[in-house]
Write a structure and sequence with these properties.
GO terms for molecular function: structural constituent of cytoskeleton. The chain is α+β, with helices and mostly antiparallel strands. Helices cover 64% and strands 15% of the residues. Strands 1-2-12-11-6-7 form a six-stranded antiparallel β-sheet, with no helix packed on it. A hairpin with a 7-residue loop joins strand 6 and strand 7. 11% of the residues are buried.
Length: 457
């Protein structure tokens, strides 16, 4: 019994040791197989990782297929190993299967890790491709902007060159025109100076005063001055005439005294000689006074001629400005008109009874009076009547032509463009009438004031 137990224990020990050694050998073989499978799997994953950089969809499918094939092969080997060892040792297949399951889980985890890495790489590749696409779009946009700015710069440079060329040409033309203008101006000045000197030489013998300014105010002031001087010299002439008459009376008295002295005794001859000396002095003084009188008469004649010239100039200026004075012999009143015009068309005639107003073109060119307005007002009383008339749009007043605007029922005929008859309103009447001519911008072009005034007799 003891021997059987020892034999059984020995057999059990041998069996356990053989089982242990068999298990170790099996595990070593499985480990070697697993290592080989891991190496093949790693190499497969390495190959997949490297090849995944070149292709996206094809390499992914190939790697998955390789992984599935390797897993199926390992699983079939494990199943065959388990079936071969099932009869020898029952606990071993369970351990081996558990280990295979562990290795399969490890491989699956490793596959998941590598797949996550591959997905990360794919994501990075996608991001890089997107970045490349964005950079290409930015490059294309920048290139387009650069081309646009280049074309715009070329256009601006062309425009600048044209402007610079135009400015240079304008400057040259302006310089040439200014030079030509200065040259012509100098020539005209020399010509005018020569003509002026010739005119001075021609008129030097007939005119003493050279610089006569044709200004109405200057003429009036000169006339007043000459009238004052004339009055002064007239007073002096009258005084000299009185002196001469006094001297003549003295001479006659002295002659009477001489006659009386001649009848006097010789003793009075000395007094006579003295009287004769006085007479000689008086004669010399008289001769000097006569010379002064002659000089004053010459000066009077000169001033009279100058006054006549100025009166003629004033009369011509009054005629030019349409300032005239008409004396009414029956009523003792004078009719006066004062007018001015910025153009050649003037108020030629105005009826104080309000019948008509006449305009005349006294220039050499036509005047367009279309839509112009005539305003007439009675100034003889406060708030007198006021009337206006507007011309037709196509009215042109030719040189020398007159146009007359009649009041209604004033005996006028409507015959454009020589005469017009107003409708409804009529011109004002009175002792003082003022008329104005306004253009399209209501600017006063011409005016005339006609009035009666009492004579100061």
């Amino acid at each position: 019994m003891v021997n059987e137990q020892s034999t059984y224990s020995t057999y059990t020990t041998m069996t356990e040791s053989s089982l242990y050694s068999t298990s170790q050998l099996t595990r070593k073989g499985e480990k070697t197989t697993i290592d080989a499978n891991e190496q093949s799997t790693y190499s497969t994953y390495t190959t997949m990782t490297e090849s995944s950089l070149y292709s996206t969809s094809q390499l992914t499918r190939k790697g998955e297929k390789t992984t599935i094939d390797a897993t199926n092969e390992r699983l079939s080997k494990v199943i065959e190993k388990v079936l071969s060892l099932k009869l020898d040792d029952q606990p071993l297949p369970a351990i081996t299967i558990d280990k295979s399951l562990f290795e399969f889980g490890y491989a699956e985890n490793l596959e998941i890790q590598h797949r996550s890495k591959i997905d990360a790489l794919f994501y990075k590749i996608t991001q890089l491709q997107r970045g490349i696409a964005e950079k290409e779009s930015q490059y294309n946009e920048i290139q387009t902007n650069l081309d646009f700015e280049s074309k715009r710069h070329e256009k601006l440079m062309a425009a600048y060159r044209r402007m610079e060329y135009t400015r240079i040409i304008e400057k040259l033309v302006i310089t040439q025109v200014a030079t030509e203008y200065d040259r012509k101006l100098v020539e005209d000045l020399h010509t005018l100076r020569a003509e002026f000197e010739d005119l001075i030489q021609k008129r030097k013998t007939s005119f003493v005063l050279t610089n006569v300014e044709f200004d109405i105010t200057h003429f009036v002031a000169s006339v007043y001055k000459f009238e004052e001087m004339k009055a002064k010299y007239d007073k002096e002439i009258h005084a000299l005439e009185d002196t001469i008459s006094n001297l003549k009376a003295q001479i006659s008295n002295k002659r009477n005294e001489v006659l009386q002295l001649k009848t006097v005794d010789i003793e009075t001859r000395e007094a006579e000689i003295i009287a004769n000396g006085k007479i000689e002095v008086i004669r010399r003084e008289l001769a000097e006074e006569i010379k002064k009188y002659v000089a004053l008469m010459d000066l009077k004649l000169y001033f009279d001629s100058e006054l006549s010239i100025y009166q003629k100039l004033i009369a011509s200026e009054e005629l030019r400005l349409i300032i005239r004075k008409v004396v009414d012999k029956h009523t003792g009143r004078s009719f006066t008109t004062k007018a001015h015009s910025d153009i050649e068309t003037v108020f030629d005639e105005i009826n104080m009874h309000g019948d008509y107003i006449q305009l005349t073109n006294k220039g050499a060119i036509k005047n367009h009076l279309g839509n112009w307005i005539i305003i007439a007002e009675d100034k003889s009383i406060a708030h007198g009547k006021k009337c206006q008339y507007k011309f037709e749009p196509d009215l042109d007043l030719m040189p020398g032509q007159s146009v007359k605007i009649y009041s209604p029922n004033a005996g006028g005929t409507h015959n454009p463009p020589n005469s017009y008859v107003m409708h409804g309103d009529s011109w004002p009447s009175g002792d003082k009438i003022s008329v104005q001519l306004l253009d399209n911008n209501n600017k006063k072009i011409a005016h005339l004031t006609a009035f009666y005034e009492e004579d100061s007799e």
